Fold this protein.
Amino acid sequence: MRAQLRKQLVNLALVLAAVGAVTAVVLTTGRVTTEERELRADNLLPAWRGDDVTRVSVEREGKATVIEQGPADDAGEREWRLTSPIAEGADAYGVDQLLRSLEFARVVRRIKPEQVDRAAFGLEAPRWRLEIEMGAIRYRLAIGAEAASPAGATYVELSGVGVPTPGVALVAKELLPELSAGLTELRSKLLLPYLSIALSKLSLAGEGGERRLRREGKLWRFDGERGDRRVSREALDSVLLQLARLNVEQFLDAQEVERQQRGAGVVTVTQTPEDPAKPPGVLIVGGACPGGRPGVLARRVSPDPLAGCVPDSVMAGLTLPAERLEDASAVGLRRDEIESLSVELGGRKLVMDRLESRFELREPTRAEVSLEAGNERLEHLVAARGQRVEAPDLAALGLQPPRGTLTVRSAAESEHDVVEERVALGRVDATGRLAVRREVDGVVLELSRDEARAFTPDAALVRSRSLLPFRPAEVTRVELSGQQGRQVLEHRAGGESLLLQPKGYAVDAAGAQELIEALAGLNAERWVADEDDGSFGLQRAPLSVTVSVGDADAGSKTYELRVGDASLSGSYGSLRGEPGVFLLARRTVALLDTLLIDRSVFSVPAEQLQGVTLSAGPRRLRLVRSGDGFSAVASELPSSRIGPLVDALLTLRAEAALHLGAARPDEGFGKPLLEVELSRRDGGKLRFEVGAGDTWRELAIHYARVDGIAATYLLPRSRVRLLLDAL
């Protein structure tokens, strides 16, 4: 019983406290509290409650500019609007600056009432007036004359309703420009009256032709033209971006702009809001700004007339022709919008659903799919673009009846807002091209072989991207067969490598180690198919790699990697004896097809270098060892440049060995660009030639050959340039 009574007393105390708090708020809303006055003792306004400010008026030269907060929208947000001298949206930045200036305005000093001379202070006929409505408080500010001291300070009179400390004060000259906001500063600079998500239709006419569009959920279609085909979201985004950039850089008289736009190449933009109660937004853009000003003219005809100059770059998006707006993608939803995916083709099925932080594969097997792998699959799907087929023979393309179907559904708060797209899948031709038909508008597209792979129902999503299960130390032998011919690398205990094939060449130790580590950590960029259908170029395998791991005691195992045709983002690969086709990164494929012969053949040890001779046509430079350094013979080369030049020669290393055998005609060795001879202390010499410049794997290089080595190497162009500049 006592416990129950205690509980009731606690509840009663909480209720009384809540009532007291509400009462305190109600009682203080209409007045300035003592605490507020103390905290804002140096501020012009003794209280500031930003959320309660609903109206501000700035009156100058008999003209008042008034901004008011409108009613809250569905999200509870309230927008500022101009209500005088015109009715239109207010510029959010301009309003924010004015309110912040009022909130933080400070006084230089307050004038005692007996010292106020209203006529002398300019308060009988103020330069301008401000009124601020903040709940039950009404501030009135009269801006008077400048004071004699301090320089530039101005008299301001504060009065109103609910103001505890009315009177006159001096404010610093910096405050006046901030408080003098007028129509130009407060009116919205944005010409566009509605956002695209609030529209049902959008049309553009004039320059660029007639383009009538209508919105259907997240997607847009042509409206009554071009077969009502779907509009490309990327192309439409470029139009909407330019519309969003229609910010007036300088206001102009609307009637004058209308006159100047007559006969000019203009675009008329008409926005039809979803809300039938709202008027259409009509804008006319085009024509040169007067007086040689940069930009083009823009005029809003409806709902609120407004005109001015806008950036001339907007015309590129607004004049985009209708054919450029047509969608060439099979799927219109974006990757992050897709909640579920279903593909049925050739008796096989793939079903995948998005969960919180991953995907779940439901068919052909139930498994968890990582967020990265699922998003990657969807990205390839939505990125697929095709060529539109004019007057398609649906039966011949395998679309009547279709051989399969792709369905994607979007996420939405309600079933009514869910977007579902269905795409009919047809026959794959001899080149791997797939015909698809969008259900939404009947458009038939042909997808390339690479793009068609995203529409294949397979279980590649659940495959591990790690391909080879061994550590670098376990590798005993690597055999490479590709454009460079056959290479055989023996990897011994302790990390030493030996090049068995081609014979007679020293191994590039760093390159060999990089290769072995790459193979041990080999990952697929992504899996593309459950099995090889013969279209990946793997049967002829222009590049193959065989890796042996283990030893006689533990048992050995061999893995064979085959690399086929190249795609836009890599090359297709497979492992012998393992199902599935994957994509290898370009860098990995390049590494697998690089010669493993020694690249450090262009220098001698520092302690052995005795002399250097550089020759380029008639120009010649000779350096000889002098103590611990080098000096130039019969040359004006500054001593400060000799050290860096020698260091460059001692560390010179090729980017790669390009090929074995004799030099090719286009490599420029018939007339070398540069000849280098390095003399050793033991009497030996290293001589090499530098040939023509070129690019290799996006690197700037020069071909180079060393006497006695039947191979062409690639030297960095920057190093060659340094040697040439010394001559």
